[in-house]
């Protein structure tokens, strides 16, 4: 159901919770239904993990809705617009807020075949494909994650010697567990989510070599089945979608990077044959890349003259 009025957005700032020396905070809170609702959304300038201790309802993240139950875990990007729709009398949660800078050196070392850790770039935004968004939510309770969060609470509350280095390691461990759990969930997602996830990989890694065998193996289904699912859901093949994304990016670069030559754009967008790139581009846009760039420049000059 569409809202008649746009939701009001509140903003939380990091300086109210921590300083730059140690950008981390963890605490429990109890919320009531009247504190939230569809008419109120919230943003922040830090990253946030929410662990549900007690209560039920719905977590709204941008335009997607996720069930709330004890043990549910959410990872929130600063640009996400969020709220709760609380159905129980109260909702008890544990908030973990932080800046990625505190674990940046370790993040660079992590293997990330499924793009989980890309959320820690500001420009990753919440515009990630829905399939990728599903990675940032775990529905069921996990004893290992529950124990780890309790340990983090104790370390932070007691603030004993060397608690800050230990909390950095505990946060990193929590994120690794989150990523592993998410990876397992992807393998059991329904077909629509598998399609969304393929779209995310295409969007994020269009310039790289794309192997269907590796993609299907990573998701955990047969390559032929994945291709059938994708075509049935989208009306095109995975390679068609990949080529379309590469061409869209090439067209964007032809408009915006006038100094970059066409062959550089071709290879930078994932094509490995210039003549094939010309054929594909002409079929898509009705003109070759050089003409496309000249026409765009002419249109831009005409607009400037009119002004």
Explain this structure:
By secondary structure, the chain is of the alpha+beta class. The protein folds into 2 domains: 8-186, Jelly Rolls (Sandwich); 192-306, Arc Repressor Mutant, subunit A. The chain is built from 11 helices and 10 strands. The strands form 3 sheets. Strands 2-9-4-7-10 form a 5-stranded antiparallel sheet, covered by helices on one side. A 3-stranded antiparallel sheet has the order 6-5-8, with no helix packed on it. Strands 1-3 form a two-stranded parallel sheet. A hairpin with a 2-residue loop joins strand 5 (57-61) and strand 6 (64-68). Mean pLDDT is 84; it is low at 125-131 and 301-307.
Summary keywords:
three-stranded antiparallel beta sheet, Arc Repressor Mutant, subunit A, Jelly Rolls, 2 domains, alpha+beta, 307 residues, five-stranded antiparallel beta sheet, 18% strand
Return the CATH topology of the largest domain.
Jelly Rolls
Largest sheet report: 5 strands, antiparallel
Report the count of strand segments.
10
Radius of gyration: 23 Å
Question: Overall 3D geometry?
Answer: elongated
Total of domains: 2
Low-confidence stretches: 125-131, 301-307
Strand content: 15-25%
Number of alpha- plus pi-helical segments = 11
Q: Which class do the helix and strand fractions yield?
A: alpha+beta
Q: Roughly how many Å apart are the termini?
A: 42 Å
Strand line-up of the largest beta sheet:
2-9-4-7-10
**Average pLDDT number:** 84
Broad CATH class of the largest domain? Mainly Beta
Name given to the CATH architecture of the largest domain: Sandwich
Helix-strand topology string: EEEEEEEEEHHEHHHHHHHHH
Q: What name goes with the CATH superfamily of the largest domain?
A: Regulatory protein AraC
- In percent, how helical is the residue content? 40-55%
């Amino acid at each position: 159901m569409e809202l008649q009025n746009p939701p009001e957005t509140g903003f939380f700032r990091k300086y109210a919770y921590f300083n730059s020396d140690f950008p981390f905070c963890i605490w429990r809170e109890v919320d009531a239904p009247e504190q939230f609702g569809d008419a109120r959304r919230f943003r922040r300038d830090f990253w946030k993990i929410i662990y549900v201790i007690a209560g039920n309802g719905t977590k709204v993240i941008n335009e997607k809705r996720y069930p709330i139950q004890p043990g549910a875990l959410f990872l929130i990007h600063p640009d996400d617009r969020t709220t709760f729709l609380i159905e129980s009398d109260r909702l008890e949660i544990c908030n973990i807020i932080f800046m990625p800078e505190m674990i940046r050196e370790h993040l660079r070392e992590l293997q990330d075949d499924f793009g989980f850790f890309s959320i820690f770039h500001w420009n990753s935004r919440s515009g990630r494909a829905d399939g990728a968004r599903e990675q940032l939510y775990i529905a069921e309770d996990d004893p290992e994650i529950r124990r780890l969060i309790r340990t983090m609470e104790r370390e932070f509350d007691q603030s004993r010697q060397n608690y800050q280095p230990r909390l950095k390691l505990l946060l990193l461990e929590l994120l690794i567990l989150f990523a592993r759990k998410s990876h397992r969930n992807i393998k059991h997602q329904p077909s629509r989510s598998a399609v969304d996830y393929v779209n995310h990989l295409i969007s994020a890694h269009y310039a790289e070599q794309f192997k269907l065998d590796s993609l299907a193996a990573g998701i955990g289904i047969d390559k032929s089945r994945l291709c059938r699912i994708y075509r049935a859901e989208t009306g095109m093949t995975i390679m068609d979608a990949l080529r379309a994304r590469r061409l869209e990016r090439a067209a964007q670069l032809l408009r915006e990077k006038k100094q970059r030559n066409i062959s550089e754009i071709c290879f930078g967008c994932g094509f490995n044959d210039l003549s094939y790139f010309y054929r594909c581009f002409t079929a898509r846009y009705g003109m070759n890349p050089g003409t496309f760039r000249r026409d765009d420049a002419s249109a831009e000059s005409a607009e400037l003259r009119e002004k």
